[in-house]
Design a protein that fits this description.
The chain is 21% helix and 26% strand. The protein has 57 residues and is α+β, with helices and mostly antiparallel strands. The protein has a three-stranded mixed beta sheet with strand order 1-2-3, with no helix packed on it. The termini are close together.
Length: 57
């Protein structure tokens, strides 16, 4: 695990995400809907709903 710093690029997905899809599902979402590369060093932030459940990858 690396530390999060101001040197990272933070990308927020504004839609709702079903975390049951796991890591592979989130990577697919980054590629398909955000036109990004999950391995580029950016921090991808997802929310399951309006609650406090969030995930970082």
């Amino acid at each position: 695990m690396t530390g999060l710093t101001h040197l990272h690029r933070y990308m927020l997905y504004r839609g709702r995400v079903d975390f049951r899809n796991g890591f592979d599902g989130l990577c697919g979402l980054v590629r398909r809907e955000m036109n990004g590369d999950p391995a580029d060093g950016s921090v991808w932030i997802f929310s399951q709903s309006t609650s406090s459940n969030h995930g970082l990858t």
